[in-house]
Amino acid sequence: MRGRRAFLARLAALSVLVPVRAAAQGFAGLATEAEGFTLPRPDPTFSFPADHGPHHDFRIEWWYVTANLKGPDGTPYGVQWTLFRSALAPAEAEGWDSPQVWFGHAALTTPERHFATERYARGGIGQAGVTAEPFAAWIDEWHLQGETLSDVAMAATGPDFGYDLALVAEGPLVFHGEGGFSVKSDAGQASYYYSQPFYRAEGRLLLPSGTVEVTGRAWLDREWSSQPLEETQEGWDWFSLHFESGERLMLYRLRESGGGAYTAATWIAADGTAEAVPDGYATAEPLESGEVAGRQVPLVWRLRWPERGLDVVTRPVNPNAWMGLTIPYWEGPVSVEGSHDGRGYLEMTGYE
Amino acid sequence: MVLGALLSGWRRAPLQLVTLLAGLALATALWAGVQAINAEARASYDAAAATLGEGRFDQIVAADGGAIPRETYVALRRAGWLVSPVIEGRRDGVRVVGLDPLTAPGGLGPVDLDEGEVGAFLSEAGAVYGRADALAALGDVAPAKVVAPEVAPGTVLTDLRVAARLLPEAGIGRLIVADVQPLGRPALEEVAPGLSLRSAQGAADVGRLTDSFHLNLTAFGALAFVVGIFIVHGAIGLAFEERRPVIRTLRALGVPLGPLMAVIGAELVVLALVAGAVGLALGYLIAAALLPDVAATLGGLYGAEVAGSLSFRPGWALAGLGMTLVGTAVAGGGALLALARMPVLAAARPRAWAMAGGRRRARQTAGGLALLVLAALVLWRGGGLVAGFAGLGALMLGGALMLPPLLDLALAAGARTARRPVADWFWADSRQQLPGLSLALMALLLAMAANVGVSTMVSSFRVTFERFLDQRLFADLYVQAEDGEQAARIEAVAVAAGAEVLPRVGVEATLAGQPGEVLAARESAAFEANWRFLDAAPEPWAGVWAGEGVLVNEQLARRSGLGPGDRLEVVEGTGLPILGVYGDYGNPVGQAVVGEALFRQLYPEAEATQFGISGADPGALAEGLTSQAGLPAGAITDQAAAKRFSLAVFERTFSVTGALNVLTLAVAGFAMLMSLLTLAGMRLPQLAPVWALGLTRARLGRLDLVRAVMLAAFTAVLAIPLGLALAWVLLAVINVEAFGWRLPMILFPWDYVRLVLLALVAGGLAALWPAWRLARTPPAVLLKVFSGER
């Protein structure tokens, strides 16, 4: 579901790049032309670990981790660590002249509190960046790094919270869409999109009340593109769910300004085997909305994928998981009940 | 009808109307002018704080004052220090400030991350933002120039990358520290040794200094306002007294008191608004004329940039009009109240009003004495700038209130010397007129005293400053090098020519908990021969050369309460005894001087780029430096030019107070003229019998002229001690609080003689026209006095 991050990222990227945020240009102007930037092509061939690193000729890119955690007393927690890259030009340069802009979001959600903070950095000077081997993604003192992407330390701090987790992958990478070519609209907008949904997570959270030891599951989304949204697409609702059966689901729903939606999904078996479907197979339907940060946001969702026998309802661990950052959105952990029980993460953008 | 009846009063007495309007307009003009200057300066400081973060955020600088390497910046960020780099420098006389919009604390700079404008800021082309004049001065350096009035004057803002291009020599000069920092940061010295954190308080100190300057201006504006209100008070009081018959008639005709008072009140409001508008226009002109000098002063003395041109602020105009209304209410409230309480059939007694006698004088004397005692108490016990100014205000007002009783004593003494009837009458008549003239004379006293006080302060400052320059600027040539390499060449060339080279090298440092600087002194007999100390241990220089002690400037000594014998921590862990305290006029920050050897040990990185050089033949030396060390001629300044430049800064500093002084004196002269003109009409009943007894009209006119000059002379003589008291407060209280140094008070008797003469001229000029009118009064008018017309 980090796909939505994609959007998010773009949106963030765009708001960095584009002076005017006109409705006609889609959410946060993500739907702009891609002058000079490379566009994703179907049938990609990925090369690892190089593709874990940055692709400067694409306009936007992100490394997006969410984790569903539990404390010793069973209290559910959620953690987000995201690094976005947004290019002013399809190039990289050493020093102040670099056209690459980086920004990071970090959040920590408890049933009662939600902490979120952000960082910005310019490329070219080492304040932020990603290297593929050994793998390291960082902005300021925040980092996601290890020998390989399968075994990383993830840490971030804000003025009133922090976390430090070890993530170990227990399954393979999963490619969304057609082998990692993920279509975002009927008009053909697309991105490269793969995930590592099998992290086991362990570490500690730093809260105003003290330190909490936690364990749980984490999910990494990698996505890059140059023009990911259709002009009429206003925002998205993006789910990444871990079921108790060991299976996983990624589902995103891109909302059209006319009221329609484009919904794609990937079913991930416990062994990592994946089936990705375009629009028309799975659905997400808001059941209940609530007021969050002064706006109406759908909080309870019903997800269905009849061919997979899926019919579940998701509820937020903390409805007030609003990311009141430069680019505001809702992102937080959810619990899942119905045909499949489990937990996961939900990101919703465009509810401004 | 009621209105018509009331307005007819003004038609009959146009002089009163003019006095009232002119008094209000002048009072408003000086007050509003000063406020306009202050508002412009504050707007400039705010712009600096808003766009540059000055005074708002802590800053990190290199301890040796040099550039901060980019790697150090990145290391700090990666350690969790939320800091933002600034590259700044001057180009074409414009301050170029390069910010990183991505890391600058929220709201800093001309663009807002939220608004997406940051794209233009960061875009390939590179835009510069500033006021139109700064952009124009910068020349053709960037493809996009964006006019941004909110940017501080004389400054352009741009992205770090563009600034790095425009200022190839400058590195990161400072790091802005965000207010909110993440948890678990390591200490600064662990990550980046050699950097020091300077709290926002440091910059606020400059704010405190400029505040004192503005308080100074405000005090002047208030003084002028008070003088103006004195005039208005006199005019309104008299006008109302003369209106009593009209009001009596109106009341007798059945006009109720309430509406009548409302009409009179409205009339005053209208007059105040008209006069206020004229005053605002005048004030704007005054401010526009003075602002360039104020801007130069603030720039030269405090390093604060202020726009040189004035913008119109509606808030300022409203506040100015408000002050006019308040002044009118203060000046006219009493008279209005007296009218309201007047018995319906009371007679008009304008002369009695003007001459109101003994009881009021006794009250004034008591009040004046009380204020003088209060002034002494406040100045003795109070601390701080505000107490200083409050004491000053009490002193001036008390002095003014004491003037009429003192003048009365003087006139009584004069009367005892009279041997002939005319002289006897002259003294008696003068005493009679005193109450009517006392307000004008008090205004004259205040203006004179301000003149004496301020000119004493400025002249004392000038003499001290010149002596100080002679002590300090003893080298023949002052040379500015561009970098360390050129500096080394300069030294080599000069030493080869047999000249003595004294490098000026210093670093910014925290001294006794406050921002300051540490300077190095190279062992030289010239220091021992030229420097004078305010307070020192024996043989201070010997200790400095040996690295066993430190010299501090007066500012540092006063602020920290340290003196010779105390220890000063120059760098952490290095405490040195203070060997001497020297005067350091014109410098806002604390300073310490150590011997060069010790300095090199403490700050091995610091490089000297300024030198004082003395040799047998300065001309040849300068030539050698240009030809052999490759120094541009502009980088060499001779001693005379350096002194000229320093004095020019000084002169501009006080040209503003000088101008205000002259304006205040002019207002006082005007008050005197108006009072004399008013009195002239009322004195006929006294003069007619004297004329009938044989004194000619011309002689009467001459006597009036003499009387005015005599009263002005008495006032001027009394103004000198008051002015000297004022000077003492300025030098010994206000200066110490505002600048951190105390100046010796030097008397300038010839200046005071000149001022007394000026006062005589002012009094004479003010009396000339009334006296001339008296000499031309038709005999028929004088005769009417006896026909029972009055």
UniProtKB/TrEMBL annotation, chain A:
Keywords carried by this UniProt record: Hydrolase, Signal
Domain AttH: 60-226
InterPro entries given in the database record: AttH-like_dom_sf, AttH_dom
Coiled coil regions in record: none
Membrane-traversing stretches: none
UniProt GO molecular function: hydrolase activity
Keyword Hydrolase found: yes
Residues spanning the signal sequence: 1-24
Listed PANTHER family: BLL1000 PROTEIN, HYDROLASE
Protein name as it appears in the record: Putative secreted hydrolase
Organism: Wenxinia marina DSM 24838
TrEMBL record, chain B:
Transmembrane intervals: 217-240, 260-291, 316-340, 361-380, 386-413, 434-454, 662-684, 705-732, 752-772
Superkingdom of origin: Bacteria
Location(s), subcellular: Cell membrane
Domain spans labelled ABC3 transporter permease C-terminal: 219-343, 661-779
GO cellular component: plasma membrane
Pfam families per UniProt: FtsX (PF02687)
Keyword Membrane: yes
Subcellular location, principal: membrane
Topological category with respect to the lipid bilayer: Multi-pass membrane protein
InterPro entries tied to this protein: ABC3_permease_C, Membrane_comp_ABC_pdt
The entry's keywords: Cell membrane, Membrane, Transmembrane, Transmembrane helix
Record protein name field: Putative ABC-type transport system involved in lysophospholipase L1 biosynthesis
Provenance organism: Wenxinia marina DSM 24838
Lineage: Bacteria, Pseudomonadati, Pseudomonadota, Alphaproteobacteria, Rhodobacterales
